[in-house]
């Protein structure tokens, strides 16, 4: 039975440092049960602790990213059965030090929408639709949708999405700043991997620190966020070893010399 539950959340690690988590219940539009949510939380925890993993991609199998919580399991989830931080998917996503790229392949509804908002970068298929059904079914939001969505697209647009419970298509989501880019369904995972590979080319330690200062600073007023960045910057350079500073200078000098060389004519 445990193996069957595991198969509902697939984790694939490639050799180049990218791990892909797939919500794998396509026949039910990837509706989430309690066990799936717990497994998803543990998957993020394990990948965050895995030194071979540098970037995480999250997607869904079939034609949906996730249709939200399985209605047959709704009482368990809504009444807080998944209540410890260790088994809370969103809590583990927020704690994850590594960049999380959401590849939204289709319908992304309510709890699925909330999980998408827990990602750091979103790429959407042209088939993607974002829907918040809390108001339609009398379910009070408790996983952050009411707060994260308005910070992503603004309070006026968020009110329209949430109070009307109508679908937000991928093109409008991109226009409103919810997703980074929209691509054809066949290109979705390739686009997500392309972003992951671009991240992998950079300084791993600084990528982790940069993600943290962006996410932590976003929670603060601008003045406090600027102070936070300055404090962490000072701490970063104060702890830098002489050989690390020299390596950084050498890298910058090497890049500068390459950029200054004239391009050869064909």
UniProtKB/TrEMBL annotation:
Family annotation (SUPFAM superfamilies): ClpP/crotonase
Gene3D superfamilies to which the protein is assigned, alphabetical: 2-enoyl-CoA Hydratase, Chain A, domain 1
One Pfam family cited in the UniProt record for this chain: ECH_1
InterPro entries: ClpP/crotonase-like_dom_sf (IPR029045), Enoyl-CoA_hydra/iso (IPR001753)
Residues making up the signal peptide according to the UniProt record: none
Family: Belongs to the enoyl-CoA hydratase/isomerase family.
Record-given protein name: Enoyl-CoA hydratase
Organism, scientific name: Physcomitrium patens
């Amino acid at each position: 039975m445990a193996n069957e539950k595991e198969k509902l959340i697939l984790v694939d690690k490639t050799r180049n440092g990218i791990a892909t988590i797939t919500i794998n219940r396509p026949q039910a539009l990837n509706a989430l049960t309690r066990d799936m949510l717990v497994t998803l939380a543990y998957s993020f925890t394990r990948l965050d602790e895995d030194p071979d993993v540098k970037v995480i991609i999250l997607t869904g199998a079939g034609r949906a990213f996730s249709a939200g919580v399985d209605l047959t399991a709704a009482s368990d989830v809504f009444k807080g059965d998944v209540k410890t931080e260790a088994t809370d998917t969103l809590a583990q996503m927020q704690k994850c030090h590594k960049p999380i790229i959401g590849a939204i392949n289709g319908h992304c509804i309510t709890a699925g929408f909330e999980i998408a908002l827990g990602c750091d970068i979103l790429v959407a298929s042209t088939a993607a639709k974002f829907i918040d059904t809390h108001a339609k079914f009398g379910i009070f939001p408790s996983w952050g949708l009411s707060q994260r969505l308005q910070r992503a697209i603004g309070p006026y647009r968020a009110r329209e999405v949430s109070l009307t419970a109508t679908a937000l298509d991928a093109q409008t989501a991109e226009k409103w700043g919810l997703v980074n880019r929209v691509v054809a369904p066949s290109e979705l995972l390739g686009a997500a991997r392309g972003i992951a590979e671009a991240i992998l080319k950079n300084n791993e330690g600084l990528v982790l620190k940069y993600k943290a200062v962006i996410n932590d600073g976003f929670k603060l007023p601008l003045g406090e966020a600027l102070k936070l960045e300055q404090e962490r910057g000072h701490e970063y350079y104060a702890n830098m070893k002489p050989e690390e500073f020299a390596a950084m200078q050498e890298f910058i000098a090497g890049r500068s010399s390459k950029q200054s060389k004239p391009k050869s004519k064909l």
